[in-house]
Design goal:
This protein is an alpha/beta fold. The protein has a single domain, classed as Ribonuclease Z/Hydroxyacylglutathione hydrolase-like (Metallo-beta-lactamase, Chain A). It is built from six helices and 14 strands. The strands form two sheets. The chain has a seven-stranded mixed sheet, with helices on one face. The protein has a seven-stranded mixed sheet with strand order 7-8-9-10-11-12-13, covered by helices on one side. The radius of gyration is 18 Å and the shape is globular. The structure holds zinc ion.
Length: 276
């Protein structure tokens, strides 16, 4: 029997889970294109960077099709052999990038499937609002000729996932609502909400450990040291705030005195051992 699942954070919302030599990816985004592309131009994904840091993978799960979750998925399908699972918009965007139907599965909340050693369950998620709105949402443009504008990566819906292998489970949960949340050994969350917002989710999931991701400025390239992302504006708080993971961790420990929270180092593999 292989040992526990290994977890590797890839920057932004990207995660790699490895078990028994098989790999499953979630939202890998290594290209980290400059901020100016929000307004101008059509960036090319950085295939070379993806191949430098990632190994062949069986599966790639997409939480939602925004550029910082989907842009590198075509490379992962084409060059690393992964089958992609995501929403209808995600599927259209992958087809536009020349990925074949046989490598794409459209999924919905309530679906579950097995990919090698990984059991995957699909749940609905909820995107964080930025100044009250969710950017780049709705129907895709009729013409999708890559390289795409960042605003072409439009979201239709958002998913959360529970991935289990070798008797351990990792829940990548994207909404402060605990509705439908299953129990899991490890809960993976993003820094865009306050620690208190996760209270009812933690009560339901009862994780042994929590891992914090998606706090880093994904417009800053990988060769620079990671720095926090500007936090979405919130009513009653100062306008300029950074998603400082250490500040989040301090708030987390105050909110959940029993709760263990980990801020992973980028690309460092850590073994998940639920007995520890
Ligand atoms: Zn998004």
């Amino acid at each position: 029997m292989p040992d526990g699942m290994n977890f590797r954070w890839l920057g932004a919302a990207g995660v790699e889970l490895e078990y028994g030599g098989e790999r499953l990816l979630v939202d890998p985004y290594l290209s980290r294109v400059p901020f100016r592309y929000i307004f101008f131009g059509r960036p090319h994904p950085n295939r070379e960077l993806v191949l430098r840091h990632l190994s062949p993978a069986r599966t790639v799960l997409i939480t939602h099709p925004h550029f910082d979750h989907l842009m590198d998925v075509p490379t992962v399908c084409r060059d690393l052999g992964a089958t992609a699972y995501g929403s209808s918009n995600a599927s259209v965007l992958l087809l536009a990038h020349g990925i074949s139907y046989s490598k794409i599965q459209i999924i919905h909340p309530g679906n579950n499937f097995q990919e090698g050693p990984f059991s995957v369950e699909v749940f609905s998620g909820e995107h964080n609002r930025i100044a009250g709105i969710i950017p780049h949402t709705g129907r895709l443009p009729k013409q999708l000729n890559p390289p795409l504008k960042l605003s072409d990566f439009r979201m239709d819906c958002m998913y959360s996932y529970r991935v289990s292998a070798g008797g351990q489970s990792v829940l990548l949960w994207n909404t402060p609502s605990p509705e439908g949340a299953p129990a899991a050994d490890v809960l993976v969350i993003t820094a865009s909400r306050r620690p208190e917002a996760w209270r009812s989710v933690v009560a339901k999931v009862k994780p042994k450990a929590v891992i914090l991701i998606h706090w880093d400025d994904f417009f800053s390239p990988l060769e620079r040291p990671l720095r926090p992302m500007l936090a979405p504006p919130r009513l009653g708080e100062r306008l300029i705030r950074w998603m400082d993971p250490h500040e989040f961790a301090r708030g987390w420990v105050t909110t959940f005195p029993e709760g263990r929270i980990y801020i992973p180092d980028i690309f460092q593999s850590v073994e998940i051992n639920s007995n520890r």
